[in-house]
Specification:
Blueprint (H helix, E strand, L loop, with lengths): L1 H4 L15 E7 L4 E7 L6 H8 L2 E4 L6 H10 L13 E8 L5 E5 L5 E5 L1
Parallel strand pairs: 1-4
Antiparallel strand pairs: 1-5, 2-3, 2-4, 5-6
């Protein structure tokens, strides 16, 4: 995903993707970065409400690893034996020079590209 998008994502060399990740790139005049979680339908209603409320915004890409780590905590990744999540991490990046592109990285499988 990094090669296609030009964005760096926090990774560990011995681990695959632990949750589906949707990267939405849009060309706009102003830079904005949003990180949110879309809960899987199998989650209980209270957990869905909690995950739906997760939304962090940035003014630049430099701080991107922090909200991604916060989202992993919200999804309970790596706690209580939970290593993989069905919840979707959505990262929306807008700014000049960005293509209109959506990339979906599904846990340990191939990546799908959608051009708008």
């Amino acid at each position: 995903m990094e090669v296609i998008s030009g964005l760096s994502f926090p990774i560990k060399s011995n681990l695959c993707t632990r949750f589906p990740t949707e990267l939405v790139l849009r060309k706009t005049s102003c830079i904005s970065v949003s990180v949110l979680v879309v809960p899987h339908q199998s989650r209980s209603e209270p957990v869905q409400i909690s995950l739906d409320s997760f939304h962090e915004e940035l003014d630049s890409l430099e701080g991107l690893p922090n909200p991604i780590e916060n989202a992993k905590t919200a999804m309970a990744i790596f706690t209580h034996g939970r290593a993989i999540s069905k919840d979707l991490l959505r990262v929306e990046v807008s700014g000049p020079g960005r293509p209109h592109l959506t990339v979906l990285d599904i846990c340990g499988t191939c990546t799908y590209l959608f051009f708008c």
